[in-house]
Design goal:
With 212 residues, the protein is mostly helical. It has one domain. It is built from ten helices and no strands. Helix 2 packs antiparallel against helix 7 and helix 9 packs antiparallel against helix 10.
C-alpha cells in the first residue's frame, strides 16, 4: 500500500471510532445510527476532498477498504458501548488523530493533482474538518471547527508542513508523521489549556446615565 492510502485508512478508522463514540455518548441511536454516524465522520472529509479534486468516483466508493474500515470501527464501538458511554478523552484523542492524518493526506493528494500550495493547504484542512463537521450537524450541535479549542488552525499547520515538504521534494514517511504529530499536539494542547482562535471583540455596554 502507498503511504497516502495507509494514512487515509488509519485516519478513517480513527474518525470512525470518534463518530461512533459521539453517537453513543451524545445521541440515543440504534446500531444503524451508530454505524451511520461513524461512517459519515470517517468518510465525509475524504469524499469532499475527492469531489473538489474531481477524482470521481471518490476513493470511498472505488476501494472497499474504506467502507470496511469505517463500518468496522462503528461496529466495534457499538459492541462495547456499555463500557464507553462516559468516556470523553477517547473522543478527543481520536478526533485529533483523524484530523491530523486527514489534513496530511488531503494536502498531499491535492499536490499530486497539481493544485497550488495555498489551495493544497486549504483542501488539506477541509479534508481534516469535513467529517467532523458533518458529524456535529447530524447530532444537532454547532460544528466543533467553529467553536472548539484550536481545530482548524492545527489542520492548516499540518497541511502547510505537508505542502512545504512536498514542494521541497522531501515528502515521505518522516515528513508525514512530523506534520501529523504537529497537528495532533497542537490540537490536544488547545483542549488541555482551553486555547481558542481569536474571536470578534465583544460589544461594550454603553454606560450612560442618560440612556433609557
Amino acid at each position: 500500500m502507498t503511504l497516502l492510502l495507509v494514512l487515509d485508512l488509519v485516519g478513517t478508522f480513527a474518525f470512525a471510532l470518534n463518530g461512533a463514540l459521539t453517537a453513543v455518548r451524545a445521541a440515543d441511536l440504534d446500531i444503524v445510527g451508530v454505524v451511520a454516524l461513524a461512517m459519515t465522520t470517517a468518510l465525509g472529509g475524504g469524499i469532499l476532498r475527492d469531489i473538489v479534486l474531481d477524482d470521481l468516483p471518490p476513493a470511498t466508493f472505488s476501494d472497499w477498504r474504506y467502507l470496511a474500515v469505517a463500518a468496522g470501527g462503528g461496529l466495534l464501538v457499538f459492541g462495547f458501548a456499555h463500557h464507553l458511554e462516559r468516556l470523553r478523552t477517547p473522543i478527543t484523542v481520536l478526533d485529533a488523530a483523524g484530523l491530523s492524518l486527514f489534513a496530511v493526506t488531503g494536502a498531499s493528494k491535492a499536490l499530486d493533482f497539481g493544485l497550488g500550495p495555498v489551495q493544497a493547504v486549504l483542501l488539506g484542512a477541509l479534508t481534516g474538518v469535513g467529517g467532523g463537521t458533518l458529524r456535529d450537524v447530524l447530532v444537532r450541535r454547532v460544528p466543533a471547527v467553529l467553536t472548539s479549542d484550536l481545530h482548524a488552525i492545527p489542520a492548516l499547520a499540518a497541511a502547510a508542513v505537508t505542502v512545504v515538504a512536498g514542494l521541497a521534494g522531501v515528502y515521505g514517511v518522516p515528513a508525514a508523521i512530523g506534520a501529523a504529530a504537529l497537528c495532533f499536539g497542537v490540537r490536544l494542547l488547545g483542549v488541555r489549556y482551553h486555547l481558542h482562535a481569536p474571536g470578534p471583540p465583544r460589544r461594550r455596554r454603553r454606560e450612560s446615565s442618560g440612556d433609557g
